[in-house]
Design brief:
The chain is of the alpha+beta class. It has one domain: Rossmann fold (3-Layer(aba) Sandwich), CATH 3.40.50.720. It is built from four helices and two strands, in the order ααβαβα. The chain has a two-stranded parallel ribbon. β1, α3 and β2 form a beta-alpha-beta unit. It is globular, with a radius of gyration of 14 Å.
C-alpha cells in the first residue's frame, strides 16, 4: 500500500516538479476517507491513506511559493461525484 499510495506518487511528483513549477500547474490526488475512519482488516491501507493526506498538505504548503496547487479529493462511494465536480471547478478557476 505504501509503495503505491506514497512512494509511487512521490517519484512521479519529483520527476515532474520542474514542469509543474514552470507551468504553475495543479496536482489532483485521490485519497480516501479510510484515513479518518478505520476499518477492520484495513489498518495498513488506512495508514497509507493518512500518510498520503499529510504529504499532500505538506506539498501544498511547500509548493505554494512556486504557484503549484495540490488538491486532495477524499473519496467515498457516496460523495466521489460531488468532489470531482468541486475539484474540476477549482482547477478551471485558478
Amino acid at each position: 500500500m505504501f509503495e503505491v499510495n506514497i512512494w509511487g506518487r512521490a517519484r512521479v511528483t519529483q520527476a515532474f516538479a520542474g514542469l509543474l513549477m514552470s507551468a504553475k500547474g495543479t496536482i489532483i490526488n485521490i485519497g480516501s476517507i479510510a484515513a479518518y475512519y478505520p476499518s477492520v482488516w484495513q489498518g495498513i491501507y488506512g495508514a497509507s491513506c493518512a500518510a498520503q493526506h499529510q504529504w499532500n498538505d505538506v506539498l501544498r504548503i511547500e509548493m505554494e511559493p512556486f504557484h503549484v496547487t495540490f488538491i486532495l479529493v477524499r473519496s467515498c462511494w457516496k460523495c466521489l461525484r460531488l468532489q470531482w465536480q468541486v475539484a474540476i471547478q477549482l482547477c478551471w478557476h485558478s
